[in-house]
Amino acid sequence: MGDIRPQVIPTERLGLVPLRIDHAEEMSSALADPALYDFIGGAPLTPQELRSRYELMLAGSPDPEVSWCNWVIQLRDEPRLVGTVQATITPAYPGPVAEIAWIVGTDWQRRGIAKEAARGLVDWLRRKPVRAVLAHIHPDHRASAAVATATGLEPTGQWHDGELTWRLTLNHDAS
Ligand SMILES: CC(C)(COP(=O)(O)OP(=O)(O)OC[C@H]1O[C@@H](n2cnc3c(N)ncnc32)[C@H](O)[C@@H]1OP(=O)(O)O)[C@@H](O)C(=O)NCCC(=O)NCCS
After folding, report:
1. Rg from Cα positions in the chain
2. Are the CB atoms for 117 and 84 separated by under 8 Å?
3. Which end of the chain is more exposed for a tag (fewer CB within 10 A), N or C?
């Protein structure tokens, strides 16, 4: 169960590329705007801090049943990294769930990049043994709610650390 590994996911304008430690320097500059962290908490990280974080992420979950899958979002037309998507896949009843999240650098927002990346990620998850996709979104975060809606998730009415849980049940019998 905990052995799901990220793969390259091509979409129309993007490539979702499995995270590597050497992405840290470029991602540090892409995600340098403090406003990016208004809803999700945290602050911009230096290249060295991000490198350390990526090392931990790439080491994987301490729980062998859980898969941590992380991608950078690369533009196809120019070799530039503009954001990240992630999926944490956890055993659950009646089948595994993937908690997903997204972030796009301020300079590249409002071009449909988050929607395209999230759809690509969910299409990839449909081909994995995953029963449902979840996202936890601050109730005032309109952009993120729009990304979730465009990706087929719906608000559940359940709360998780002050955020509303959105869900998409996938149409296959994963177990
Ligand atoms: C949420 C986020 C990823 C959206 O990225 P993006 O690439 O600009 O999103 P898209 O261009 O795909 O737009 C998605 C929708 O959000 C809307 N939107 C984008 N920015 C918005 C803003 N600042 N205010 C209101 N709506 C906004 C778009 O109009 C679009 O709506 P539509 O589907 O009705 O047309 C980006 O704002 C971000 O990284 N925020 C900080 C990190 C974060 O909070 N992540 C969420 C974790 S769950």
Report:
1. 15
2. no
3. C
Residue ranges and CATH numbers for the domains of the chain are 9-169 (3.40.630.30)
User: Does residue 114 line the site of ligand 1, with CB under 6 A?
Assistant: yes
Measure 88 CA to ligand 1 centroid, in angstroms.
Answer: 21
Q: Whose CA is nearest to atom 33 of ligand 1?
A: 146
SS (H, E, C) 54-102: HHHHHHCCCCCCCEEEEEEEEECCCCCEEEEEEEEEECCCCCCEEEEEE
| pLDDT value, residue 7 | 98
Answer whether 142 contacts ligand 1 (Cβ < 6 A).
yes
Which amino acid does the sequence have at 138?
H
- Answer whether 113 contacts ligand 1 (Cβ < 6 A): yes
Q: In this predicted structure, what is the pLDDT of residue 1? A: 59
What share of the chain has pLDDT > 70, as a percent?
97
CA of 4 to the centre of ligand 1 (A): 28
Q: Which residue is closest in CA terms to ligand 1's atom 25?
A: 143
**Which amino acid is present at 70?**
N
What are the tens digits of pLDDT across the range 23-79? 999 999 999 999 999 999 999 999 999 999 999 999 999 999 999 999 999 999 998
